[in-house]
Amino acid sequence: MTGLLLLCLALGVTLGEELYPVQPGREGPVYDFNTRVVGGSNTEIAKWPWQASLRYNGGHTCGAIIISPNYLLTAAHCVNGRTYALFDIEVGSSNRGSGTVYKLSSIIEHSGYSGSSAGFPNDIAILQVQGSLVFTSTVQAANLPPSKSYNHDFHECYITGWGKIRGNQNSLPTTLQEAMIPAITNSECATRMSGINGASIYDQHACNFDAYASTNACQGDSGGPMACRASANDEFVVVGIASWVITGCTGSYPSVYARVAYFLDWLLSNGIPL
């Protein structure tokens, strides 16, 4: 069946241990907790130094985005219902298992997040690390949108992560993946999602879609960045946090992200310096 897929890899101990919660009124798997970039290619962390791996019980489960030496962002569904003590983050390396690991001291999950509502609203969470990240050429804070109204016709957008390369397999890449995918308007996103039960698109969402390539986020990419720039001379800005796709990660439908600009006030209200 066609359903919604949250892009998180809740691996526990064994890769491929996927959860398929069924939402009321639907049959079969609606989403699970595993994700990667489908149709991407190997890349270097120095190009995307804000990319981090969020690990659960020592294994990659989601992406995360460095926003300061003390804080990162991820998707709420990556941490929902779990204690911070079971998570850590890995930064500074293109290859999983070769970076620097930091424990967490707290998680702030958006109180409005709902994994049982159409469109999975408010899918954002703040991770606080113990101590401070040491910034280097491969560990840096992302540029965030300067205002809530931030919106551009972007020159190019990229997604990155260690999620699945193919929707029909459970293994994850060791090396960080990247893929260029055009951003689309929310209106186009909603139109392309029409007829899919529960695939609601709100102002708090951002979408990307490539009509000419089978490129998509997938399980394990959740919580990772959608980074865009308005021109080739501009710096990249992280405009979205990977949230969900349609089951299968085939690229036939858009990928959906939490729109970072929409949540700037929420970040400030939680003491996050911007």
Automatic annotation (TrEMBL):
<dbReference type="InterPro" id="IPR009003">
    <property type="entry name" value="Peptidase_S1_PA"/>
</dbReference>
<keyword id="KW-0720">Serine protease</keyword>
<dbReference type="InterPro" id="IPR033116">
    <property type="entry name" value="TRYPSIN_SER"/>
</dbReference>
<dbReference type="GO" id="GO:0004252">
    <property type="term" value="F:serine-type endopeptidase activity"/>
</dbReference>
<keyword id="KW-1015">Disulfide bond</keyword>
<dbReference type="GO" id="GO:0006508">
    <property type="term" value="P:proteolysis"/>
</dbReference>
<dbReference type="InterPro" id="IPR043504">
    <property type="entry name" value="Peptidase_S1_PA_chymotrypsin"/>
</dbReference>
<dbReference type="InterPro" id="IPR001314">
    <property type="entry name" value="Peptidase_S1A"/>
</dbReference>
<protein>
    <submittedName>
        <fullName>Fibrinolytic enzyme, isozyme C-like</fullName>
    </submittedName>
</protein>
<feature type="signal peptide">
    <location>
        <begin position="1"/>
        <end position="16"/>
    </location>
</feature>
<keyword id="KW-0378">Hydrolase</keyword>
<dbReference type="Pfam" id="PF00089">
    <property type="entry name" value="Trypsin"/>
</dbReference>
<keyword id="KW-0732">Signal</keyword>
<keyword id="KW-0645">Protease</keyword>
<feature type="domain" description="Peptidase S1">
    <location>
        <begin position="37"/>
        <end position="272"/>
    </location>
</feature>
<dbReference type="InterPro" id="IPR001254">
    <property type="entry name" value="Trypsin_dom"/>
</dbReference>
<dbReference type="InterPro" id="IPR018114">
    <property type="entry name" value="TRYPSIN_HIS"/>
</dbReference>
